[in-house]
């Protein structure tokens, strides 16, 4: 099923007699019922006001189309959404609705926030076929359910997005990466923490153990970047051999977890306090690792069928199985009070349980 308008989607949802799997571009490998409800037909930018830093687009609009429109005006999606195709081995094209539904955010999240923080408004169709609008085209307070925040990261379990409004930001004039060579995980986290704790406005901090490289990014006006890079080299000099790379290609590889592309195994995404990263990495026994967000996000490639949660035991954080076979829950099981709230929300917005049943517990 691929509706071409919100009205058509309303009719489809109202007439559903069985559950469906809601998909945008189909790039993230979302499991679920065989019957699929695609949003790709709901496409197009409906409003773009560069001067107001505001963009409104239908949910099925390809992310590439939005990024091209922004680039033409010297702007960007500051939260740097990941492209899952290389990691998941999928085709298709990522859509802006899928980005919002999964709250996809890249390395710059440590500096500017997540997709959720840039979401101004949403339109959606709930499980009864009702159209709901929440938020707007400017930042403002809301009463009742804050669906703008609630829908980001709901993975299509509460409703089908039809339109989203986003705040955008200017693209930087220049960018550069300070690279420290040869650090093990604990020392790499210390180096990234030192950079992030400095006054030099770091917009990316990642560690690639397989390459023995720790990366610290700065962006902005050319003279400012040059100054901050020089100061960060001083900050990091005591941690190892330091060099500087221009451009941003390495950050696309971090964002998309390129070291795992084409490799066999299950992929896990673990969110933790950076200070806990080294201890958890030692317990993972992973075949490959990528650390982002200053050590607060750990991507782990492990053997097929490995339950990484069981291997790690109790820890302060959560683990999501991004790629792998059945038998292990995709998302971290929720504590009983939070699970009750989640179940209540699903009962309110999707009382028939027709959208992505079982995906989030």
| Major sheet characteristics | 5 strands, antiparallel
| Stretches with pLDDT under 50, minimum 5 residues | 138-144
Query: Separation of termini?
Result: 25 Å
Quick one: how many beta strands? 17
Order the strands across the largest sheet as they lie in space: 3-4-8-6-7
Average residue-wise pLDDT: 92
DSSP summary: helix tally: 13
Radius of gyration: 21 Å
What is the 3D shape?
A: globular
Description:
With 361 residues, the protein is of the alpha+beta class. It has 13 helices and 17 strands. It has helices spanning 6-14, 63-72, 85-88, 96-101, 109-112, 115-118, 147-151, 185-196, 222-236, 249-255, 277-284, 308-312, 336-349, and strands at 21-23, 36-38, 45-49, 54-58, 75-76, 119-125, 131-135, 160-167, 169-170, 174-181, 202-208, 213-220, 242-246, 266-272, 288-292, 297-302, 317-323. The strands form 5 sheets. It has a 5-stranded antiparallel sheet. The protein has a 4-stranded antiparallel sheet with strand order 11-12-10-13. The longest helix has 15 residues, at 222-236. The two termini are 25 Å apart.
């Amino acid at each position: 099923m691929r509706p071409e308008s919100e009205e058509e989607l309303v009719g489809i949802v109202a007439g559903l007699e069985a559950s469906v799997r809601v998909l945008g571009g189909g790039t993230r490998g979302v499991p679920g019922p065989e019957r699929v409800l695609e949003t790709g037909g709901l496409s197009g930018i409906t409003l773009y006001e560069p001067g107001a830093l505001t963009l409104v687009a239908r949910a099925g609009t390809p992310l590439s189309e939005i990024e091209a429109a922004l680039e033409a005006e010297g702007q960007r999606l500051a939260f740097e959404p990941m492209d899952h195709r290389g990691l998941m081995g999928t085709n298709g094209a990522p859509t802006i609705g899928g980005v919002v539904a999964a709250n996809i955010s890249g390395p710059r999240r440590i500096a500017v926030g997540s997709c959720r923080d840039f979401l101004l408004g949403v339109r959606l169709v709930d499980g009864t076929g009702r159209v709901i609008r929440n938020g707007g085209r400017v930042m403002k307070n809301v009463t009742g359910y804050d669906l703008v925040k609630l829908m980001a990261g709901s993975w299509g379990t509460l409703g089908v997005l039809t339109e989203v409004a986003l705040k955008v930001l200017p693209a930087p004039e220049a960018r550069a990466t300070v690279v420290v060579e040869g650090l093990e995980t604990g020392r790499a986290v210390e180096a990234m923490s030192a950079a992030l704790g400095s006054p030099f406005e770091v917009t990316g901090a990642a560690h690639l153990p397989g390459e023995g490289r720790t990366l610290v990014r700065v962006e902005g006006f050319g003279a400012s970047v040059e100054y901050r890079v020089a100061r960060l080299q001083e900050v990091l000099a005591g941690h190892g051999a330091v060099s500087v790379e221009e451009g941003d290609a390495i950050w696309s590889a971090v964002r998309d977890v390129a070291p795992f592309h084409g490799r066999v195994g299950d992929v896990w995404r673990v969110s933790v306090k950076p200070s806990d990263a080294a201890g958890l990495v030692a317990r993972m026994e992973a075949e490959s690792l990528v650390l982002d967000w200053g050590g607060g996000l750990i991507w782990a490639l492990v053997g097929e069928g490995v339950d990484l949660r069981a291997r790690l035991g109790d820890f302060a954080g959560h683990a999501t199985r991004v790629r792998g076979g059945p038998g292990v829950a995709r998302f971290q099981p929720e504590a009983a009070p939070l699970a009750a709230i989640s179940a209540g929300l699903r009962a309110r917005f999707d009382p028939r349980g027709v959208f992505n049943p079982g995906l989030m517990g």
